[in-house]
Structure to design on (69 residues):
């Protein structure tokens, strides 16, 4: 199974379980799919605070510490 198919399968299962927990309401269930998809991809994104924190601790190469004899 390709990584894309694995991702889709994980989203499908999460949406299905959410739909079941909601009492299996009538309708197309697109809201369950979209919520499962949002949660899935949100878990895969880096946390913005970590990225900002890392960039604050480093400095650009053009601002290297001055050499002192």
């Amino acid at each position: 199974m390709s990584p894309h198919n694995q991702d889709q399968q994980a989203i499908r299962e999460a949406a299905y379980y959410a739909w079941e927990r909601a009492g299996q309401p009538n309708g197309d269930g697109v809201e369950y799919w979209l919520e499962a998809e949002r949660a899935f991809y949100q878990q895969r994104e880096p946390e913005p605070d970590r990225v900002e924190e890392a960039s604050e601790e480093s400095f650009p190469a053009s601002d290297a510490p001055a050499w002192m004899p």
